[in-house]
Amino acid sequence: xxxxxxxxxxxxxxxxxxxxxxxxxxxxxxxxxxxxxxxxxxxxxxxxxxxxxxxxxxxxxxxxxxxxxxxxxxxxxxxxxxxxxxxxxxxxxxxxxxxxxxxxxxxxxxxxxxxxxxxxxxxxxxxxxxxxxxxxxxxxxxxxxxxxxxxxxxxxxxxxxxxxxxxxxxxxxxxxxxxxxxxxxxxxxxxxxxxxxxxxxxxxxxxxxx
Length: 210
Known about the structure:
The protein has helices spanning 7-11, 15-32, 42-49, 51-54, 62-71, 75-79, 99-104, 110-117, 138-141, 143-158, 170-177, 187-194, 204-209, and strands at residues 37-39, 72-74, 92-96, 121-123, 164-167, 184-186. It folds into two domains: 7-78, no CATH class; 84-209, Rossmann fold, CATH 3.40.50. The longest helix has 18 residues, at 15-32. The N and C termini lie far apart (43 Å). It is built from 13 helices and six strands. Strands 4-3-5-6 form a four-stranded parallel sheet, sandwiched between helices.
């Protein structure tokens, strides 16, 4: 089955481990003859899209790695190509743009457009270009600086008084979630709910108060 894509060890400079993990995933997806590789963690997605560069000097994997990278899409990038109807989301939310999405993959408009299409009011966040302090393993290796970045990000988010926060990277969700009581969810959780899926557990208190 699928395993780690190699992103975390790649961040840490453990090249041999990251390369071995990348090759394992490339072999599995190539054998399965996948049309797309849809990724829900943007930090992983940035690495998978970069497989071609990671393995550019490996003659046995170079072409396969490029092919898998070209087939990789962030979940919001993929959903933006579909014709989703208007949804029933009715919360005031903010969208946190993970660095791996807005800077690494250059995906900026799609997540917010999807959330707006789903019925949510998406608020602008001051300093939205700044990192939350997660940054792969940065929050573990540089906890003091990471905490300062988190607190600055949380202050910016809370300044617009959202009911919830949407984000597309698990590291960011964990990092920001340690500094605020505002519920933070994966963007897809909110989209699923807006289109008739189950209410996310993190929104239970909000629903009870309404």
